[in-house]
């Protein structure tokens, strides 16, 4: 009440001006703007605004609820959206504050251990839905809590990303190393051996597409689990993480088990046509989606959101661009977009493999999701995490950004309809503003940076951009003719895919 009275005393106009100034200060560090129609630009800005409003900058007791605080949908709980979809956005735009999300997950580690024991597993299992207490809060009638297990690796990956892109080594020493080891212990207890101990599998799990919730060997889940096992084994073997290993109680036998499981875990591979089966038996499901209802999606090839395409995000380097393009077309034809993450996720996946026209089409629809109430559910709250994936489409997809410990790599992929793209990112707590126009990339390192930002444009050499320095580099678009040919041939490719499905049957 005291705050309300003080605001009333200052008056509406004064409070509004203060709000606008505060918002501009916060969003300037994450500014992204591009040359598109006003409706898309407005929708994109609206999504970014709600991302910032949902993030508790100075409070590690809370995460980022899927709807923020804008509506009752999902009861203000946190999903994998926070770990996998939103955290990279905050890491690249508000890196110091992003540490609060690591602290939020780490502080709940005892509850995650108890959650694993509840389901008969060892280690730490991150609940599918949780809030301030760290306990599972999924509705009891849903079959997801013991099956949507990729979320544990999604959370572990946050610590690795933060360690990769900031100079804050303490986060991994104090929290991350232990968290990664304890989630790896969970996966090791969940994996089963088969085929005479020649390979191991992840069975009886829920696919992140969220329609096929009784599945074996899902690509996304298996890739994330393997990464977690490999990272835990490597982390436990480093002398500087000995204290974390002791806190987690990791033995040499466990490390050998993680290495063995990671090497033998079955990962679905591309077929001769380049298509990857989402999970065991997916190709045998009914491909006819006409009039399909969500009640029967698990018996069909319908997906709510394409988790194979989502898997290409963290594991893009494993799969050639042509494989990613073929899978994008295959799963795009089967995606019902029942999730708010689906449209921007498909846009991001398309942009990263050069399907720019398809990416723009999906981005335009996603950007208006809430303002136009596309899914007729905005009354339940704004789709906060979708805004982060829209940003990935623009910055990672069209800006061609890849951030690593060694530096920032830019391989611009500007849509032919755009004349410019501008965005700001942070690397090692240093701020870099980027402006891309046809053939040119402008790089401006903030004068307040405590050191240079290392940047590579295209196939050029890695250069250091000193504080306050402005550099301009040239770039040349690759594969434009190929993209136009792919668009022109779309009908023939669709006919070919239908023939391939028939042959599998």
Overall description:
With 505 residues, the protein is of the alpha+beta class. It has two domains: 31-398, Glycosyltransferase (Alpha/alpha barrel), CATH 1.50.10.10; 399-504, Maltose phosphorylase, domain 3. Helix content is 46%, strand content 10%. It contains 18 helices and eleven strands. The strands form three sheets. It has a five-stranded antiparallel β-sheet with strand order 1-6-7-8-11. Strands 4-5-9-10 form a four-stranded mixed β-sheet. A two-stranded antiparallel sheet has the order 2-3. Strand 7 (430-437) and strand 8 (440-445) form a beta hairpin. Helix 8 packs across helix 9 and helix 9 runs antiparallel to helix 11 (252-264). The radius of gyration is 23 Å and the shape is globular. The protein starts with a helix and ends with a helix. The model is unreliable at 479-505 (pLDDT under 50).
